[in-house]
């Protein structure tokens, strides 16, 4: 039996909006209609597709259908717009991006695509592709250079980071000491437990895995502030740190050394005007912001 495109689009809406009620509002139908469509789709597939939780999440069986439902919804909207010769409403585009890109160069790219409503997610750049695999987003800024199945990939450039500390932290922990020895003991600032950038730098310097005391500060602006105020040392974007290093407000712990994080753009492999426009805008923005 063929899958019903309306049921698939409804299933995607439930996952994207997090609940049956929110999906009903987005689709301009009743919650009962949403429930009936999901149950009908589950009967066809023979599996429970969505966990009725807060927010609703796809089951393992449902993950393979989320992306298909989203693709159908996007292509249907674009086809209607083309047929009617005018926009019937902005397409909703879900994108996941790492926090540092979101806080610096990524948002200007969105303003170049006025015919879309964006649903932005954030995650560590090494994990953003997981949402793409699950079908809950249409595009991702990621460190994965191998295309996720059903997606296309394009290199954006590299984000460069410098290991820096406030002068007081440098004086207390690093001045006159071997850098590897100091990194084993000095408190560091990391974004969250997925963030291994500081550990990567410490391993490259020392040749071994180090586990110093670490503060978790899960917001880009607060992370930068924490390092500047002396909570611990950390890796800041070169563009953000260079002026303060030159002025002596921050100390470069290893002049001439840095960590480059290569970034790639992955998105659904569709003939979609919105995704094509977004891809061009993201690539153009990255060309001026990344190495």
Short description:
The protein has 291 residues and is of the alpha/beta class. The protein has helices spanning 5-17, 20-27, 31-45, 60-84, 99-110, 128-134, 167-174, 179-183, 197-206, 220-228, 238-247, 273-289; strands at residues 50-51, 57-58, 91-97, 116-122, 139-142, 151-165, 188-190, 214-216, 234-237, 251-252, 259-268.
What is this structure's SSE topology?
Layout (H helix, E strand, L loop, with lengths): L4 H13 L2 H8 L3 H15 L4 E2 L5 E2 L1 H25 L6 E7 L1 H12 L5 E7 L5 H7 L4 E4 L8 E15 L1 H8 L4 H5 L4 E3 L6 H10 L7 E3 L3 H9 L5 E4 H10 L3 E2 L6 E10 L4 H17 L2
Helix pairs in contact: 1-2, 1-3, 1-4, 2-3, 5-12
GO molecular function, one term: DNA-binding transcription factor activity
Protein name: LysR family transcriptional regulator (Chromosome initiation inhibitor)
Family: Belongs to the LysR transcriptional regulatory family.
Features:
291 residues, alpha/beta, Arc Repressor Mutant, subunit A, D-Maltodextrin-Binding Protein, domain 2, seven-stranded mixed sheet, two-stranded antiparallel ribbon, 12 helices, 48% helix, elongated, LysR family transcriptional regulator (Chromosome initiation inhibitor), LysR_subst-bd, ArgP, activator
Low-confidence stretches: none
CATH top level label of the domain at 159-260? Alpha Beta
Annotated CATH homologous superfamily of the domain at 159-260 = Periplasmic binding protein-like II
Count of discrete alpha- or pi-helical segments spanning 4 or more residues: 12
- What percentage of amino acids are in beta strands? 15-25%
Mean pLDDT figure:
89
What is the CATH topology of the domain at 159-260? D-Maltodextrin-Binding Protein, domain 2
Q: What's the count of strands? A: 11
Question: What is the H/E order?
Answer: HHHEEHEHEHEEHHEHEHEHEEH
CATH architecture label name of the domain at 159-260: 3-Layer(aba) Sandwich
Please give the alpha-carbon distance between the first and last residues: 50 Å
Largest sheet: 7 strands, mixed
